[in-house]
Amino acid sequence: MYKDGFCFQSYGWNMLRPLGDLQHAINMLEAYQIDEISIIRPVRGNDEPKGLAADIQKLENLKTMTPISFGGGISSLTALKLLKNVPIERLVLSSAYIDKNDPLIKAATELYGRQALQALLPLCYVNNTLSVFNCQKKTSTPLSTDELDYCVNNANEIILYDIKNEGMNDGFDYSIVDAILVQTKPINNSQLILAGGIGEKTAKYARDKQFAAVLVENRVLHHEYSLGRYKHG
Amino acid sequence: MHVDIVDLGSGNVRSIKNVLSLLNVPARSITRPNEISSNILILPGVGSAGPYMEKMKASGFDGAVKDHAEAGKNLIGICLGFQLMTDYTEEDNGVAGLGLIKGHAQRLKQENYTRSHNGWETFTFPKTILAETGYKVAGNLTRKQIVEGRVFYNHEYGVVCEDDNAVTLPINGQGLNQYTAMLVKKNIIGMQFHPEKSQMTGLNLMAMIL
User: Fold this and answer.
1) How many angstroms separate the CA of residue B127 from the nearest CA in chain A?
2) Which residue among A37, B46, B99, B120 has the highest number of C-beta atoms inside a 10 angstrom radius?
3) Which 3 state secondary structure label does DSSP give A21?
4) Own/partner pairs, B108-112, CB within 8 angstroms, 24+ separation
5) What is the pTM of this model?
6) What is the ipTM of this complex?
7) Does A27 touch chain B (CB under 8 A)?
8) Which of B55, B79, B174, B197 is the best residue to mutate to test the A interface, defined by the most A CB atoms within 10 Å of its own CB?
């Protein structure tokens, strides 16, 4: 998670624990030869254009040889144009898919290629109904088949983000996956990415099901920033 | 030595510049064909073939890139840049390429469905291929004779090479080895993967071919 120039670990889509400077975080992750780094701005209906522009400007100066996906707050063509000089390989869009923003998705496809687009769906159960959180509108609504089908047809990958268990080790709720697979037309498992509460067991579950990937929270950076390191130092 | 990078407003120009700065190789991103002054030109590419080729034609870079290569100067194409060096691509209902490499870019297919290829595959490149094809390296940035590791792919179309004058390496991915990972043809190199985002393997490879 990245906002206002700093990295954060997010818990339950609510609490943010600061983790330090972006370039430093990237350097740490690159040292571990991570496959890909996802930089997501935690937008909760309170995003300002100046804040987005400032964050993007910091991203332009990022030095890394690891693939980067970026998203959070890209909800208009104006915002998309700001990404011109940013060294990213994949674009993560959320409300654009929930709202079926065709012009934005078409423009993003032309700039990055369809293979680079990821639809992020922040999911949780509200009154026992699987609901999706619209980050721009700051509202949760029941996830419709229509919304899901739109993601399947217009995104290369769909990130199923368990917001309730975010930050918890192996907390991901597998019933979310079951609900998704029932609700939409037959989907290739390689189109799905799991996020929110990922641990070793969840990673194994995803591997066995042949999902595309899992998004692991900043556990690596916890080690780097933990007090234990200073005690031994 | 310096490197020119074609900058059409989309693509991985910034990432490529980062890699070149790690190798202490000066690089310029150029927006007009008459700015080309280096013997090494990089054609990066991200996005859809149709709009990208339209930008190339509108700016005159299509002719300029061809002239550069046909004059015997080094041309390096990455990802979409590589695909557009062929005769044509199937993307966007068919887009004519620059015709520098005999072959075409085809939608990736596996069994009954089309797919995209996103992720890492193993890769080995022996330096001897450069000498075999007559590719001349301008710098002397590495003494490595072989690059081994993994490289990063992110594409929906793959190059099917039909050029007898080119040496090709296939993609080491399940069901993908009919597509070209890397091609060397005299003064032209094409890479389907992104060396600028392939960590140390990518860095070592760029050091070898510049």
Assistant:
1) 22
2) B46
3) strand
4) B108/B155, B108/B156, B108/B157, B108/B158, B108/B176, B108/B179, B110/B174, B110/B175, B110/B176, B111/B175
5) 0.91
6) 0.90
7) no
8) B197
Structure-block tokens of residue B58: 């509108």
Q: What is the pLDDT of residues B96-129, one digit of tens each?
A: 999 999 999 999 986 655 678 999 999 999 999 9
Strands (E), A41-182: 68-71, 90-93, 117-126, 129-134, 139-142, 157-162
Size of interface A-B (CB pairs under 8 A): 79
A40 close to A1: Cβ distance less than 8 angstroms: yes
Tell me which residues of chain A, numbers 105 to 134, contact chain B at a CB-CB cutoff of 8 Å. 109-116
Nearest beta carbon to residue A87 from set B18, B50, B116: B18
pLDDT band at A185 (very low <50, low <70, confident <90, very high): confident
Asked if A89 and B12 come within 8 Å (Cβ–Cβ), the reply is yes
**Which of A27, A59, A61, A115 is the best mutation test for B, with the most CBs of B within 10 A?**
A115
Q: For residue range A190-229, list pLDDT tens digits in order.
A: 899 999 999 999 999 999 999 999 999 875 565 555 444 4
Q: Is A89 on the interface with B (CB under 8 A)?
A: yes
A59-109 pLDDT tens trace = 998 999 999 999 999 999 999 999 988 889 999 999 999 999 999 999 999
pLDDT, tens only, B55-66: 999 999 999 999
